[in-house]
Automatic annotation (TrEMBL):
It is found in: Cell membrane. Transmembrane segments: none annotated. The lineage of its organism: Eukaryota, Metazoa, Chordata, Craniata, Vertebrata. One of its GO terms (molecular function) is interleukin-17 receptor activity. Residues 41-195 form the IL17RA/B N-terminal domain. This is IL17RA/B N-terminal domain-containing protein.
Length: 283
């Protein structure tokens, strides 16, 4: 948008950036209730320290690795109605005799940026008696309760239990998983993206007053938050900055939500410095 006012031509480029909030730790959503019991199998889903017992005393006979591990982005509501991105994990079990030694599975999520890991254990309460389920389909399992974060990368592992001795063939499957960031239309409406301002439309307007003030006006967001308003000035021909000023607003009053606010900058060196960019950032 350009503004014509006394003096040279003013070109103003409004930009907006919503910064992601600081990352939360990995966590488990408590809804829907995870279920692994099915006809022919009693099973519980338990919290795990990521150190299955078989790490310490590996048995002689261990089950095969998981078959057809499938991972995709899912969305689940918490009990209080918030919507979270989750990783949907599902896998099948090979129809072979090693099923007699399958005692469960450890599912783990490793967040690459922090090296943080979270695990759950599917614990079988009885031994599987047949290579297929009573309805003759393969044994299969799914889990939807690991909450993931916008833009983060993970490694997802399904480890059949018990684990084998170190020099035997491994019986796990690991897959990389990248979560889209808040620009993705499905992610945009999730609670973590909304609270970082994914639906925020600041609608920036800039006006230069006769006394060389620059008034920046924009819409506030409806979460109590910090705003950073950054104005950069450039001479006509060069890319070097000739003006840079930042102002912060701490807006936490609910009656201001969705209202417009004005921030005034006093410009200097206005004859040489004639192009401006304005950014509003949400923290
Ligand atoms: C699962 O547990 C229930 C109740 O304890 C029991 O009646 C049932 O026989 C068990 N099923 C299997 C497959 O062990
Ligand atoms: C497992 O962990 C979740 C949170 O991560 C917690 O809410 C739940 O109470 C824990 N369950 C047990 C049996 O410790
Ligand atoms: C510039 O003008 C505006 C409106 O007329 C006034 O609010 C502001 O205080 C003035 N700024 C300076 C530095 O005089
Ligand atoms: C903020 O506004 C958006 C869009 O108007 C709305 O969907 C959201 O629920 C509001 N959030 C809060 C905390 O009021
Ligand atoms: C922002 O303002 C609120 C209320 O005025 C205050 O409680 C809060 O501590 C302020 N935040 C910071 C980081 O200064
Ligand atoms: C913000 O500035 C605009 C244009 O200068 C003015 O019309 C409006 O009344 C101002 N709003 C507030 C809240 O100061």
């Amino acid at each position: 948008m350009g503004i014509l006012s006394p003096g040279p031509l003013w070109l103003v480029l409004p930009l907006l950036v919503a910064l992601p909030r600081t990352s939360l730790a990995l966590w488990l959503l408590d809804t829907p209730e995870p279920v692994c019991s099915q006809p022919g199998l009693n099973c519980t889903v338990e919290n795990s320290t990521c150190l299955a017992e078989s790490w310490f005393s590996p048995p002689n006979m261990t089950p095969s690795f998981p078959k057809d591990v499938n991972i995709r982005l899912g969305f689940e509501h918490s009990r209080n109605g918030n919507l979270f991105p989750v990783v949907h994990i599902e896998w099948k079990v090979w129809t072979d005799g090693s099923i007699l030694f399958l005692r469960g599975a450890e599912l783990s999520v490793l967040q690459m940026s922090t090296n943080e890991q979270l695990c759950v254990e599917f614990k079988f309460l009885n031994q599987l008696q047949h290579q297929v389920r009573p309805d003759l389909s393969r044994w299969h399992f799914a889990f939807d309760n690991f909450v993931v974060e916008p833009g983060q990368e993970y490694e997802i592992t399904v480890q059949h239990l018990p684990k084998p001795k170190p020099n035997r063939d491994p019986n796990h499957e690991s897959l990389p998983f990248r979560v889209p960031d808040c620009r993705d239309p499905r992610m945009k409406v999730t609670t973590p993206c909304m609270s970082s301002g994914s639906l925020w439309e600041p609608d920036i307007l800039v006006e230069r007053l006769k006394n060389n003030s620059l008034v920046v006006s924009f819409n506030l967001w409806n979460e109590s938050t910090f705003y950073k308003i950054l104005v950069n000035g450039f001479p006509n021909t060069e890319t070097n900055s000739c003006y840079e000023e930042v102002q912060y607003i701490n807006q936490s009053r609910e009656e201001d939500f969705h209202h417009r606010t004005n921030v005034t900058f006093l410009l200097q060196n206005v004859n040489a410095c004639c192009q401006y960019s304005v950014q509003t950032l949400l923290k």
